[in-house]
From TrEMBL:
Ranges: TPR repeats: 49-82
Protein name listed in UniProt: Tetratricopeptide repeat protein
Keyword annotations of the record: TPR repeat
Lineage of source species: Bacteria, Pseudomonadati, Pseudomonadota, Gammaproteobacteria, Moraxellales
PROSITE patterns reported for this sequence: TPR
Entry-linked InterPro entries: TPR-like_helical_dom_sf, TPR_rpt
Membrane found in the keyword field: no
Keyword Ion transport: no
């Protein structure tokens, strides 16, 4: 049956089925399948902005940047007075890949302002008219770098261990804290504690909330005065430390950073900081937010919470460091340095190297692996969850894979 011959009910059913199929493909990152579904759908609704934007995103993920740009231009041309935020976000990203820095910044600014406009009427929890409390460098247990940690992936677990080591050198006035559950291997917990990190196991009620949010619980801890909320798989740096010192000197309550092309959110979940005593009952507030179903995509729902529930209050007293020029009130970073490697920026995912490990075990065997250094000392050790082939993959930090590639370190497998 031709689409033109469908009844309204049949058309709505067709659109609903397509939308469901496309969401499933996006969830498993099958962008080719999503692209094919969207190409069919665009024939039915050729001017639909969200369809054009989703189609552009699939083309972008497939490396077809100019095609993606053209779809987004159509979306904007068809809806010049009602451009969706996601369209601006996607346009900012595709302009980066097209190496058009001027348009990248232009659309990044539009995305940033559109998000501010979206939440301008959201309630403010408090009026921040005074200066922020004085920062006490001697009270290291009152100054917390807060992380969520769950699961046994070395991407996050080793990132956590490395960050505690970095904090000892770069942030000696701060204490790393990890909100965790029982899925974190005990040997990782022991290593973190031995380095001086705080470990807080979330309770049964808190477990009902996604682990993405656990690190936010620090915001209403009465024992804490200041907090940095960070990602376990991004590395602390001296560039970041200089920005934090800038924030402390500003005497403002909150701080956020934008340091890469895709940092277009008002408050990035792993790149904001603040003073306690402003927000109360954070866990309950998060649950209410999730109940209202205001987030768009599950993997970034923590950032949507920050946009709707934290930004309206925080923006009254906030210092913004912005190397991209997206925020009209942003200032440049006080320190410009390419730590770790030439592509470094604050908030970068550091466990971005995939390592293929071969083994000689049966698929039914229980297998573990160890990373050893040039002196045969164990750096880390984990179990393999499930064997499907005669090899498995690991996601490890470049700090580890550089040693592996040079031949100084090696991975051994063993039957448990």
């Amino acid at each position: 049956m031709l689409k033109s011959e469908m009844t309204l009910e049949q058309l709505n059913q067709y659109l609903a089925e397509k939308a469901s199929s496309i969401r499933t493909a996006f969830k498993i990152r099958d962008y080719y399948r999503a692209n094919q579904q969207l190409l069919e759908l665009i024939q039915v609704v050729p001017r639909h902005q969200n369809v054009l934007c989703d189609l552009a995103i699939t083309e972008m993920r497939l490396g077809h940047y100019q095609v993606a740009y053209d779809y987004l231009q159509r979306a904007i041309q068809y809806h010049p007075h009602a451009v969706e935020i996601n369209t601006y976000d996607a346009m900012c990203e595709v302009c980066y890949f097209l190496k058009d820095s001027q348009q990248q910044q232009y659309y990044g600014r539009l995305a940033n302002q559109a998000k501010k406009d979206q939440v301008k009427d959201e309630p403010k929890i408090a009026l921040l008219t005074s200066e922020a409390p004085v920062f006490d460098r001697n009270q290291v247990l009152e100054n917390i770098i807060s992380y969520s940690l769950f699961g046994d992936s070395p991407r996050y677990c080793e990132g956590a261990v490395l960050n505690v080591k970095f904090a000892q050198k770069i942030f000696p006035e701060w204490t790393c804290r990890f909100y965790i559950d029982e899925t974190v291997p005990q040997q990782v917990v022991i290593r973190l504690q031995a380095l001086g990190a705080q470990i807080i196991y979330v309770n049964a009620q808190q477990k009902q909330i996604s682990g993405l949010f656990w690190r936010f619980f620090v915001m209403d801890d009465p024992k804490v005065k200041r907090f940095l909320v960070r990602d376990a798989d991004s590395f602390l740096s001296y560039k970041e430390k200089a920005a934090i010192e800038d924030w402390i000197s500003s005497k403002r309550y909150f701080h956020c950073m934008h340091d890469a092309y895709d940092h277009v959110e008002l408050l990035l979940a792993g790149m904001f900081a603040g003073c306690t005593g402003v927000f109360e009952n954070i866990a309950q507030d998060i649950q209410q937010f999730l109940h209202r179903d205001r987030y768009l995509i599950e993997r970034v729902m923590d950032q949507h919470y920050l946009r709707y529930c934290i930004w309206p209050t925080a923006q009254q007293s906030i210092l913004i460091h912005d190397s991209q020029g997206y925020d009209s009130k942003g200032i440049i970073f006080p320190l410009k340095t390419l730590e770790y490697d030439d592509g470094f920026y604050i908030g970068r995912i550091e466990a971005n190297k995939k390592v293929k490990v071969h083994h000689d075990f049966k698929i039914t065997d229980t297998v573990g692996w160890r990373l050893r250094d040039q002196h045969h000392q164990i750096i880390c050790e984990y179990d393999v969850k499930e064997l499907k082939e005669k090899y498995f993959y690991l996601m490890l930090s470049k700090l580890y894979t550089d040693h592996l590639e040079s031949g100084n370190w090696y991975i051994e497998t063993y039957k448990k």
